[in-house]
Write a structure and sequence with these properties.
It is found in: Cell membrane. Helices cover 71% and strands 0% of the residues. It is mainly alpha-helical. It has one domain. Helix 2 runs parallel beside helix 3, helix 2 packs antiparallel against helix 4 and helix 7 runs antiparallel to helix 8. It is globular and about 45 Å long.
């Protein structure tokens, strides 16, 4: 049982559990009285919070959507920042980032279902590769304004983060870009239904 008290193992467990907290689901239930797992795309992310709550309370929908993005981003950010203060290695920080994403996408509280990892990915990337992430965020916001398709904007923003990291940071500082690629893969994988709808021209816009 000693491994449970290992510094890294404890942070990995906390990262996954924190990532698993379904803030979008909780906010919509508490403040709007709706279960977003039963409506819309049934995702626990900010876009579905906006779509579902907007049907009954448009002004509240925007607030809850923004709150969902912020809280989902902070799930990974806070754990990483605490680990940084305790002098965790860069490799450990990236492992925490991956586990926070996995927690959000495959939540222990939702039977290993969950969201698509965009906001949580934004949060962990912002701490670990800030400049590329800011570039990706600008691409994300610009595309969202122009295209008004949440999934496509998110994927373009994510792609911009990875490309910018490779060019500006020359990759990661741990001798491997694998954690960044893994996070990107998880987010892309969770977006496969959206990608298929985009190809068919059936993906809904966020108005």
């Amino acid at each position: 049982m000693d491994f449970l008290f290992n510094f890294n193992i404890l942070f990995y467990i906390v990262a996954y559990v924190a990532g698993s907290i379904p803030f979008g689901l909780l906010l919509a239930k508490v403040f709007a009285g709706v279960n977003i797992k039963e409506h819309g795309s049934k995702s626990i992310g900010a876009t579905n919070v906006l779509r579902v709550v907007k049907e009954t309370n448009p002004s509240l929908a925007k607030k809850l959507s923004v709150a969902t993005v912020i809280l989902d981003a902070l799930k990974g950010t806070i754990v990483i920042l605490i680990a940084m203060m305790l002098d965790a290695s860069t490799s450990t920080l990236w492992a925490i980032a991956v586990l926070a994403i996995l927690g959000h996408c495959y939540s222990i509280f939702l039977g290993l279902e969950g969201g698509k990892g965009v906001a949580t990915g934004l949060g962990v990337f912002l701490v670990l590769i800030p400049i590329p992430t800011l570039i990706g965020a600008v691409v994300w916001i610009f595309c969202a304004k122009v295209l008004k398709v949440s999934s496509l904007s998110s994927l373009l923003g994510l792609t911009a983060v990875v490309i910018a990291a490779l060019f500006l940071n020359n990759g990661l500082e741990i001798g491997s870009n694998a954690p960044m690629y893994l996070i990107a893969f998880i987010i892309y994988y969770k977006h496969i239904p959206n990608i298929l709808r985009l190809i068919k021209g059936e993906e809904k816009k966020v108005i």
